[in-house]
Amino acid sequence: MNKLEELGWDYSVQDIEKQMIARVITVQKNSFRISDGNLEFIAHLSGKFLNEAIDSFDFPAVGDWVEVQKLSGERKAVIKRVLPRKSQFVRQAAGVKTEAQLVAANIDTVFIVNSMNNDLSIRRIERYILSTYESGATPVVVLTKKDECSLDKVTEIISQVEKVAIGVPIVAISSVTRDGIRDLLEFLPPKRTGALLGSSGVGKSTLVNVLLGKDVQHTKDVREDDSKGRHTTTYREMFLLPNGALLIDTPGMRELQLWEGESAIESTFQDVGLLVEGCRFIDCQHDTEPGCSIKEAIEAGKLSEDRFHSYIKLQRELAYEKRKQDQKAQLVEKNRWKRVFKDQKSKYKKRNIR
Ligand SMILES: Nc1nc2c(ncn2[C@@H]2O[C@H](COP(=O)(O)OP(=O)(O)OP(=O)(O)O)[C@@H](O)[C@H]2O)c(=O)[nH]1
Ligand SMILES: [Zn+2]
């Protein structure tokens, strides 16, 4: 009996046997832990795969469906190709070299997790919602640590979040009292794949444990035999919840938050950022526009012109980097589909000959 459906499989492919499909549940450097719903396998990439792969988008990520060749008698497999993705989460690694990195694939719902007790940033939530839509998944905002807030505060925070999360469900929860957990599970029905996104300390691991009903996350005691008789420890990145939903909690998703450059600018230039928010026009160039808070602050001596200029300079650099990355990501995606198409064409040709 094939249990792929239990891993969220809901595609129809004609040209592969189901027996040859599996889902990636953990990615380590060069090996992948995959599951077919019945058994887990340690998998490696085929030589052909390695030869043809160009960038990180070509490689399997957590959540990917892959075509594999299972090795008989062993819990091992060879990955031959990645099946087309429904959604993909990309991390923009800022630095000298710009690189868009794939962190997870085929996520249905992204839970944007924020704690209500401190440093709740509406702008961050707004950005996460954007990245979620860009990935092809659906966002849900989760506000944690409800037990630490008064009802008034909860109501106030929700109304703040609603302003940037238009049409996005908002759920307030407590992992301590379990208040709201059932509401959250409504967005995680059986066979659907969710993922957690949010800063450190907001309560993601605690939530995973509550959803699982046991302490698994971060226990790092899952042992695997790598056939050389050596034991390595790892921890899983995709969980099967008791209700049959799947939940991805990878370090990669955690780091996605985001782009160091952006958060650096936000914390270093908090004062300027606040002023900009006060400008009358959202797209104020702080030049000749009426109601510009920046100009007012400079004139009043509250903001130095130097500081404002270094802020503008950094923003420009970041915008430039981001544009470069976006273009690269687009190109990579275009080439990938070209190859997939070519691949399929050659397959059909072969089939016609037979
Ligand atoms: N009062 C209260 N505390 C919570 C709740 N959820 C988590 N915490 C606490 O918040 C702290 C951080 O929780 P974690 O689950 O480790 O947060 P995380 O998001 O996984 O953080 P990283 O692992 O660093 O990414 C811990 O001390 C938790 O006990 C909650 O609902 N209510
Ligand atoms: Zn302005």
Automatic annotation (TrEMBL):
How, per the record, is the cofactor bound? Binds 1 zinc ion per subunit.
Q: Which cofactor does it need?
A: Zn(2+)
Do you know which CDD domains this protein is assigned to? YjeQ_EngC (cd01854)
User: Where, by residue number, does Zn(2+) bind?
Assistant: 279, 284, 286, 292
Taking every annotated instance into account, which residue ranges of this chain make up the domain EngC GTPase?
105-254
**Any Pfam family:** RsgA_GTPase
- Binding of GTP, residues: 144-147, 198-206
On assembly, the entry states:
Monomer. Associates with 30S ribosomal subunit, binds 16S rRNA.
Q: What is this protein called?
A: Small ribosomal subunit biogenesis GTPase RsgA
Q: What phylogenetic lineage does the species belong to?
A: Bacteria, Bacillati, Bacillota, Bacilli, Bacillales
Give the NCBIfam families listed for this entry.
ribosome small subunit-dependent GTPase A (TIGR00157)
Q: Does the keyword Magnesium apply?
A: no
Q: Which UniProt keywords apply?
A: Cytoplasm, GTP-binding, Hydrolase, Metal-binding, Nucleotide-binding, Ribosome biogenesis, RNA-binding, rRNA-binding, Zinc
Instruction: Quote the SUPFAM superfamilies the UniProt record gives.
Output: Nucleic acid-binding proteins (SSF50249), P-loop containing nucleoside triphosphate hydrolases (SSF52540)
